[in-house]
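User: Could you go from structure to sequence for me? I need the amino acid at each position, not a summary. Structure tokens:
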């Protein structure tokens, strides 16, 4: 009877039906998508905030943000392509060695470098569009900066929530981590650019 009670304590009655789901299966594509979108959002927003610290023209901010979008998307695509290509080479070599020694090798779907590169670039673009759209139709400089920060804050919270839900991690912790990181990036870029501009111009 005591043994039965111990077993009952070890298995909670409200155990969720998907508790045994292996969230690591989502790791590869989730990492590329979430990191790509978050990087696009934070990088382009920080770049625009830095330029906005010294230039008040909306055209300058938009052109800077667009250049950051294109450069960042290319960088993400190339980096992901190289990374996944290296992983693919390792897995293919492992399969060849296993075949040459008559050892069994699990037949798993091999990573696709082109698919990973495209996903990273698209995710980066998706994130980078947010601050660009937020700044496009605001004439007043201070209001424009405030709107960009507000839009980025909302988007960061959404990305953090999505990543937490799909990855099975705590939502509050994930959102807080993403928000603080994004705010710090924008504040540091804005402050340093303004400081450098004031001391050199």
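Assistant: Here is the amino acid at each position, in order:
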């Amino acid at each position: 009877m005591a043994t039965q009670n111990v077993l009952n304590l070890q298995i909670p009655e409200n155990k969720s039906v998907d508790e045994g789901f292996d969230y690591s299966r989502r790791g590869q594509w989730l990492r590329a998508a979430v990191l790509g979108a978050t990087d696009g959002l934070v990088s382009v927003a920080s770049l625009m905030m830095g330029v906005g610290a010294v230039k008040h023209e909306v055209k300058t901010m938009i052109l800077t943000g667009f250049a950051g979008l294109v450069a960042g998307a290319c960088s993400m695509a190339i980096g992901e392509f190289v990374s996944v290509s290296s992983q693919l080479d390792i897995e293919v070599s492992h399969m060849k060695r296993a075949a040459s020694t008559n050892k069994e090798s699990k037949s798993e779907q091999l990573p696709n470098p082109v698919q990973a590169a495209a996903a990273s670039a698209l995710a980066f673009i998706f994130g980078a569009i947010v601050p660009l759209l937020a700044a496009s139709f605001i004439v007043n400089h201070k209001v424009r900066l405030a709107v960009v920060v507000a839009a980025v804050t909302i988007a960061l919270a959404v990305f953090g929530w999505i990543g937490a839900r799909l990855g099975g991690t705590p939502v509050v912790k994930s959102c807080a981590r993403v928000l603080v990181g994004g705010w710090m990036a924008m504040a540091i870029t804005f402050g340093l650019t303004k400081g450098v501009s004031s001391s050199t111009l």
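One structural detail worth keeping in mind: Residues 160 and 177 are 8 Å apart (CA to CA).
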